[in-house]
Please model this.
Amino acid sequence: MAEVTAEPTTGTDEQPRPFILAGAKVFTGTTFLDGPHDVHVTDGRITDVRPSSADAGASGPADRDAKATTASGDGGGGGDAHRIDMSGQVVLPGLIDCHVHVSAERAGSMEAVHEPFSLEFFRAARNLEATLRTGITAARDAGGADLGVKQAIERGWVLGPELAIAVQVIGETGGHADHHTASGADLPFFQTHPGRPRSVADGPDDFLRLARELFRAGADQIKICTTGGVLSPTDDPLHSQMLPAEIEAVVAEAASQGSYVMSHAQGAPGIKNALRAGVRTIEHGIYLDDEAIDLFLEHDAFLVPTLQAPIEVLRGADSGVASLPPAVVAKARRVLDVHRASIATAVERGVKIAMGTDAGVGVHGSNLEELALLQDVGMSLEDALRAATSTAADLLRRPDLGRVEADATASLVALPEADLARIGELRGGDLRVWKAGREVV
Model:
């Protein structure tokens, strides 16, 4: 067969040309398949995954300059397809980060107070591209990105993963989402603007109204705070925030809009309040006890550990890159070991774990470190990959993502098989990435 150069699949409104990733080791989102397989892609979707034929022909490992041969038949898409040799490579579903803040970097640092208002949108564009190039083809923004950021990606103006947005982080007066300081200044993580409503409410009726304001602003899910946090200097991660009736009001409104609630929740009492009220996903889960874990299992809720977050706080403080209040740094040191122990127990008990990094607390583009951290607390490589693929897709209610199977969206990642053992160290440029059938180049 005549050889042709594999063409990039980015940057136009036209459907990408069908292609076949041939001879790869495949992780389906749940397990590794035995032997090499071919993944057939047409019109941005996977049309077939089949064992490679004995004469598939491999001229060498695929790389950025790999050649592709034209092959008749593309597994149901019609027409000819590029056949791309992937021998020695592993193909994974596009990875999913369930907790990012794309408009922030080194959140909580005092430097952000002095930045021009519009700078965060340009930062978001840079962070989104770094995230996608790291193999994250879908992400859930846990506060900061507004509808304009999401639509810029959808229109192709900005290179980034598919994004589900919370718009704003909300909570009670004096809580983790309230950044009114003792000096009288307001220093919010995410300032209000026409596309980003207020962050503070009190009482069930006020929280109900704020949830509706967020859905009006384009939120895909609502992010609440049911405990204190590390980055908020004047509260305690162990202390509960929001009354059960306030949480229930937000949960009920989200359900009526076909959505759900995610909760920043670090102390056990606030975690349990959230789970009893019907919150679907708990973020961080630093101080878990047996009752809290029982509630996860009873309510079939997800835990998004963000093990990377306190590590990034300490990296920023120790390196001098981030100017953080001493109270914040002290809390990060205090939670580090107990956080790991809690997540290890949750893993052992069978809680559903979805990968999330809290990228924005640190730098974007190092998201895959979370996979190594999950392995450090007891997950196997397969378990960690499931957390970043099929389980994360289930959390997002996107059955077309996080899987390498027929009819799934062809968001895919490829890397040398030898690099699986060091996947947490990989960064943009170390992987090949396809988003909805288009290669990111």
